[in-house]
Design brief:
495 residues; alpha/beta; Aldehyde Dehydrogenase, Chain A, domain 1; Aldehyde Dehydrogenase, Chain A, domain 2; 2 domains; seven-stranded mixed β-sheet; binds nicotinamide-adenine-dinucleotide
């Protein structure tokens, strides 16, 4: 196991790719503009990165479209595409320490989370999806004896993937693996807060054998590069993970341009229901703490709203506060650290604003509170628990995207379901009960894409990921992800 000193030494030896990757080569933004990439743990500059805008988008889309039309990837035998994507997975694995460091330095996530979650998940996503390529069949429709109707899955063309900063490599692979597997050309616009791992991935994609123009990466801002992708007439699919606000803008761009398909993985405010018949209060409390404090709460499926049954409230809260104390913000390069800094100062300010609002609205801070700087540097927030919360409070309704947990109470199952569903979001939910009937009953009634019973956050390449309501549409992962990146085509033959 690599230790703190070794990670620090490795981080010093890293070199950063910092230019756009278009048509198989790195190049500066056409405007020559750059933006700074800052390490949120030290507030030091990592590197200045090319700031792409509409001109770069036009160039990348042209090269992606040409590659698509040439058939160099879109018409490649499925088993060849599989071989190349498997090679890409192997290359990411060979460079796993480098990828772990890139995201940790870029956005502050702890190195232990990178090595335990993001890296293995990203590799598995590419590998699993690659393995699917030559196992998906078309159909023959039961039309009758005089005709033959063939139904096939065709690539869609040019896919633009716009991704967030909270799981930079992982969110990128969830989009690009199925999009590439289906034979499309892809343009990835990573978040301006964490572009470094995507740029390295592009280079490895070429090394694996993905033809020039098939996978391009455009670092840049949302209102420039992102918007230009959204409005481009030759982009056929927008695959997005990010905030609900920007998700809505992408739908507008599609309407204003070519009705491109828009797949959205957006925000969340997931509830965690703790019933008095839950088997192990301590386990429920420890998982509840992990569900909001891991990755500093910068997790779309974070269970930021707890509803605990009144009869066990006191015991549960005591166990929760105890469990939460094990989350201590610290240097993300230390493998013992389980909470790094927030991604930037703006995100830290958001956390502080919501803690103040919770206090103003009558919440009782049981742990944590307003952020303080550790040794004067880094955007560190404290794990914060606010009790006496209820659905009428702003911080219980709005996504904070930080380590702030609201604890509310309920008395009956019906009330718990109603409170859980009283949210514009519908991404995940956790339910704690030893009663099997209740587990099923409550799971059926909660409006969200994913429910975890007596657990939280479990996922696998075989299982779809995504939400309902303002949390989005479509699903990443599993064979269902392929539906986003393929068109159904039919061919009628009169016999
Ligand atoms: P964000 O919406 O600010 O940015 C996401 C991406 O959109 C970035 O690449 C950004 O540059 C781009 N963007 C911003 N404005 C744009 C515009 N006008 N046009 C086109 N692109 C634009 O989100 P964020 O702060 O990076 O990420 C946090 C959000 O992501 C949270 O709401 C979180 O819940 C959500 N998220 C959801 C999931 C999920 O699977 N549902 C997973 C991770 C994160």
């Amino acid at each position: 196991m690599t230790n703190h000193t070794e990670w620090k030494a490795l981080s010093k030896s890293l070199t950063f790719r910092h230019q756009a990757y278009i048509n198989g080569r790195f190049q500066p933004a056409i405007s020559g503009e750059t933006f700074p990439c800052i390490n949120p743990a030290t507030e030091q500059l990592l590197v200045d990165v090319a700031s792409c805008d509409e001109a770069d988008v036009n160039l990348a889309v042209e090269s992606a479209l040409q590659a698509y039309r040439s058939g160099v990837w879109s018409e490649l035998e499925p088993k060849q595409r599989k071989r190349i994507l498997l090679k890409l997975a192997d290359l990411v694995e060979q460079h796993k320490d480098e990828f772990a460091l890139l995201d940790t330095l870029d956005m502050g996530k702890s190195i232990s989370e990178m090595t335990a979650i993001d890296i293995p998940d990203s590799i598995d996503c590419i590998r699993w999806t690659a393995e699917c390529i030559d196992k998906i069949y078309g159909e023959i429709a039961p039309t009758g004896n005089d005709t033959l109707a063939l139904i096939s899955h065709e690539p869609v063309g040019v896919v633009a993937a716009i991704t967030p900063w909270n799981y930079p490599l992982m969110m990128a692979t969830w989009k690009l693996a199925p999009a590439l597997a289906a034979g499309n050309s892809v343009i990835l616009k990573p978040s301006e807060k964490s572009p470094l791992s995507a740029l390295r991935l592009a280079e490895l994609a070429s090394e694996a054998g993905i033809p020039d123009g098939v996978f391009n990466v455009l670092p840049g801002f949302g209102h420039t590069a992102g918007k230009a992708l959204g409005l481009h007439h030759d982009v056929n699919v927008l695959a997005f993970t990010g905030s609900t606000r920007v998700a809505g803008m992408l739908m507008e761009y599609a309407g204003q341009s070519n009705l491109k398909r828009v797949w959205l993985e957006a925000g969340g405010k997931s509830p965690n229901l703790i019933f008095e018949d839950c088997e192990d209060v301590k386990k429920a409390a420890a998982t509840a703490a992990a569900a909001i404090f891991s990755n500093q709460g910068e997790v779309c499926i974070a269970c930021s709203r707890i509803y605990v049954q009144k009869s066990i409230k006191e015991a549960f809260i005591a166990a929760l506060v105890e469990a939460a104390k094990s989350y201590q913000p610290g240097d993300p390069l230390d493998p013992a650290t389980n909470m790094g800094p927030m991604v930037d100062e703006a995100q830290l300010d958001t956390v502080a604003r919501f803690i103040r609002s919770a206090q103003d609205e009558g919440g009782q801070v049981l742990l944590g509170g307003l952020p303080e700087y550790i040794e004067g540097k880094g955007f560190y927030a404290k794990p914060t628990i606010v009790a006496e919360a209820h659905n009428g409070m702003t911080f219980v309704q709005e996504e904070i995207f930080g380590p702030v947990l609201a604890v509310c109470e309920f008395e009956t199952e019906e009330e718990a379901i109603a409170l859980a569903n009283d949210s514009k979001y519908g991404l995940g939910a956790s339910v704690w009960t030893a009663n099997l009937s209740r587990a099923h009953r409550v799971s059926r009634k909660i409006h969200s894409g994913m429910i975890w019973v007596n657990t939280w956050g479990e996922g696998d390449s075989t299982v779809p990921f995504g939400g309902v309501k303002a949390s989005g549409n479509g699903r990443d992962k599993s064979l269902h992800a392929m539906e986003k990146y393929t068109e159904l085509k039919n061919v009628w033959i009169r016999l």
